Amino acid sequence: MTQSQPRPVAIVTGASRGFGKAVTAALLDRGWTVVADARRAAELKITATELNSDRLIALPGDVTDASHRDALLTAAIKAGPLRLLVNNASRLGPSPQPALADYPRGELSAVYETNVFAPLALIQAALPALGDNAGMIINLTSDAAVEPYPGWGGYGSSKAALDQLSAVLATETSVASAVTVYAFDPGDMRTEMHQAAFPGEDISDRAEPESVVPALLRLLDTRPAAGRYRAVDLALSGAPL
Questions:
Q1: 155 is catalytic
Q2: Catalytic residue among 103, 112, 155, 182
Q3: Secondary element (H or E) of residue 39
């Protein structure tokens, strides 16, 4: 990348740990500027120190807060051409996860606020800038969106809603702008949230988040048709990751 070319900018939510942190690190390694957020300010500060890049703009806050979403977008547009939005921040819900028959309505509302309504609101705000730069949107989903696992009704149904939201947006943006929309299922990973879904169980057999990032990068590099993609399928789809 020459100095005359502005660095591409990405917004990555939920970037203080797990998959969000791994994606942020990979984008920084590729020369991107990343506007990253997380609810836990102390963890985000530690992550920023570890990644040690002047192209990382760390903004603590909750994506369900409209003023925080505005701050993310303002920082991204100021930093350069916004070309990528990764809606990674998610809320699992209670741990252990309750059956739907017993699911507290307030908790379910909080899950949907984080997993469905906040990503849509951020997309709505970012679409003009993404459209100006032929950008991409990647919404993190889960196999719980398509498989009826007992105990996963709250989280799973919220991700099913996000899948449908992504599919409709993909159809609409293909007509209205040059933005490509993906739902990306990374599969089971060794993360704090996945551990909370299985309290007391050994999840050491799950993939490390860093090992899944190349599948997401393949979406950036090859830009296939908009749609829902699983990391495992991208890993088997052709050239080495």
A1: yes
A2: 155
A3: none
For the chain, domains (ranges, CATH) are 9-235 (3.40.50.720)
Strand order in the sheet with 180-185: 56-60, 33-38, 9-12, 82-87, 136-140, 180-185, 227-230
| CB burial readout 38-53, b (16+ within 10 A) else e | bbeeebbeebbeebeb
Q: Are 85 and 126 in contact (CB under 8 A)?
A: yes
Residue for token pair 């998610």 = 90
Decide which of 195 and 131 is more confident.
131
pLDDT at 35 (0 to 100): 98
Q: What share of the chain is helix, strand, coil (3-state, %, to 5)?
A: 50, 15, 35
- Residue entry with tokens 């393949």: 218
pLDDT of res. 75: 98
Three-state DSSP at 57 gives strand
| pLDDT score at 200 | 74
Residue reference for tokens 């089971």: 188
Choice among 3-12, 60-69, 222-231 with the minimum mean pLDDT: 3-12
Residue 189, pLDDT above cutoff 90: no
Distance between CA atoms of residues 87 and 116, nearest Å: 10
Indicate if the pLDDT at residue 240 is higher than 60: no
Task: Work out the average pLDDT over 15-26.
Answer: 96
Assign 163 to helix, strand or coil.
helix
